[in-house]
Amino acid sequence: MKPAILPTFALRLRPAGELLNSVARPFYPDTLTGWVLLGVLGLAFLGACILAWRLIRIRLRGPAESFPGELETLRSVMESVPDLIYVKDLQSRFLYANQGTADVMGAVSGGELRGKSDFDYYPTEMAAGFYQDEQKVIQSGAALVSQDEHIREVDGRIRWLLTTKVPFRDASGETVGIIGIGRNITTLKETEAELKRARQNLHFKATHDSLTSLLNREAIPGHAGARDRP
User: Fold this and answer.
1) Alpha-carbon distance 126 to 119, whole Å?
2) Does the residue 228 lie in any domain?
């Protein structure tokens, strides 16, 4: 390995700690299962960084620099992770996308997404929002951390994603795209909505008459204990 490669590789992984911490924070890995999932997520992101690094090296230095066996191993790891992992260029076109990304976007495979953008799969308004966020990351060099995004699937169901996007830099430190990772939090969002409805229903029952559905006097400020007055 050439000596110059090591600082370059370290530069790739500089945002990794912030990214993994932000994605894992909502899930509080206080159990063995939580730590296992966090470990898998960390391995997946590390694989994404290495793969993106390899893709840039191949692109800049030619096919002689490729490592087919190593790349295939990294691809296999990331294809096994249900989370979305992808790399995009400066125009927000996919350089790499795992199967989890393809499933969410309605593509057959990650290979189908290569060279395409969100505009090829989502309504213009939605794709434009994703594009603007990614261009901010590219132009500012600042990561977009733990942002809630939602998409409407073909069947009309809303899918929620917790997304983080970081700049992807080449050997000279110049930003050449983004690395993104997303986790499906639809179940979490649906549970939060159900709890909110349950609290509202409980509050209504506590403050309204069960027969007439009218507001109880006791629930009106200033009328507490009205029944006890002579």
Assistant:
1) 8
2) no
